[in-house]
Design goal:
heterodimer; A: mainly beta; six-stranded mixed beta sheet; five-stranded antiparallel beta sheet; 11 strands; B: mainly beta; seven-stranded mixed beta sheet; globular
């Protein structure tokens, strides 16, 4: 039972363009959503998050959008840079729990 | 560097064996989490400890067990290993284990079961 899904295993984007990574979830009890970035041979690192009471959160080049009715969130990276090339995981957290439910990840490649 | 350390980095063993993975949380963090990442899968939450006590349990097999010691380091014990247990095992830590805490991940232990 995959409660958090990232349906695109990979994405390739040209440097300077926008990268859009998508994530769908099934459990309406999730109240907090996070994006993690992972480089090879390293653990995931926190990138940006959004509470379920918001529909947008922005941090520099990174913006996360949440559409609760569609149970969908997306991460926008503008402009994309080669250093952004990594695996991006979407994660959701249930109400009052620290347990994270992760998607399968999307490998982003930003070409110079 | 997240401040979370995991040993060993790589582990190769045979089916039926038992292994122990070790995690040291960031200085000051009281809570430890264990996650398993199998091939082409996201990270699956296994178990969480806070200050030595189990706080939450996820999809952890009965063959797996964990504990957190008084010095706050944690160990994940995997026994009667099967081929399907081959995966990356990540440890994360947070200050208090609360829902709003940021979790900091270690680099992982890659387990290969032959």
């Amino acid at each position: 039972d995959q409660q958090v899904k990232q349906n695109s295993p990979s994405l390739s984007v040209q440097e300077g363009r926008i990268s859009i990574l998508n994530c769908d979830y099934t459990n309406s009890m999730f109240d907090y959503f996070l994006w993690y970035k992972k480089y090879p041979a390293e653990g995931p690192t926190f990138l940006i998050s959004i509470s379920s009471i918001k529909d947008k959160n922005e941090d520099g080049r990174f913006t996360v959008f949440l559409n609760k009715s569609a149970k969908h969130l997306s991460l926008h990276i503008v402009p994309s840079q080669p250093g952004d090339s990594a695996v991006y995981f979407c994660a959701a957290r249930g109400f009052r729990t620290g347990k994270l439910i992760f998607g399968q990840g999307t490998t982003l490649q930003v070409k110079p | 560097d997240s401040g979370v350390t995991q040993t060993p980095k790589h582990l190769i063993t045979a089916t039926g064996q038992r292994v122990t993975l070790r995690c040291s949380p960031r200085s000051g963090d009281l809570s430890v989490y264990w996650y398993q990442q199998s091939l082409d899968q996201g990270l699956q939450f296994l178990i969480q400890y806070y200050n030595g006590e189990e706080r939450a349990k996820g999809n952890i097999l009965e063959r797996f067990s964990a504990q957190q010691f008084p010095d706050l380091h944690s160990e994940l014990n995997l026994s009667s290993l099967e081929l399907g247990d081959s995966a990356l095992y990540f440890c994360a830590s947070s200050i208090s284990g609360g829902a709003l805490d940021e979790q900091f991940f270690g680099p992982g232990t890659r387990l290969t079961v032959l």
